[in-house]
């Protein structure tokens, strides 16, 4: 992995994006993490934050990677909110197929929300 001590599984889509083998619209990057736009956004600006290491779910993450993601999340959410003019932000992690996970490289969904969504849990 460029900059990261963790191995990447080349058969995984997000690992290949991290390795630069597949294109993505990058939003932010550090040695340990990458944020890029979701290809099928739930709302404009829908961003995915991934660690630079092949870990399937949140429960598999080593402490330093989860701490890094936790540290950058507020900043990234602020940037997404300001850039999109969103009124609110959903942060969602699907862990496991039963929870709706499709790509088994852990990712935080950062989803801009708007008052006119009329969204209710
Ligand atoms: P999950 O259901 O695993 O939490 O979410 C996977 C997300 O990855 C979906 O929101 C989907 O739109 C997104 N996605 C799938 N394939 C690609 C891709 O090739 N590039 C990007 N940027 N996002 C993708």
TrEMBL record:
Domain HIT: 13-120
Gene Ontology BP term (one): nucleotide metabolic process
Catalytic residues of the enzyme: 107 (tele-amp-histidine intermediate)
Parent-protein residues present: 7 to 127 of 158
Superkingdom of source: Bacteria
GO molecular function: catalytic activity
Full protein name: Histidine triad (HIT) protein
Classification lineage: Bacteria, Pseudomonadati, Planctomycetota, Planctomycetia, Isosphaerales
Motif (Histidine triad motif): 105-109
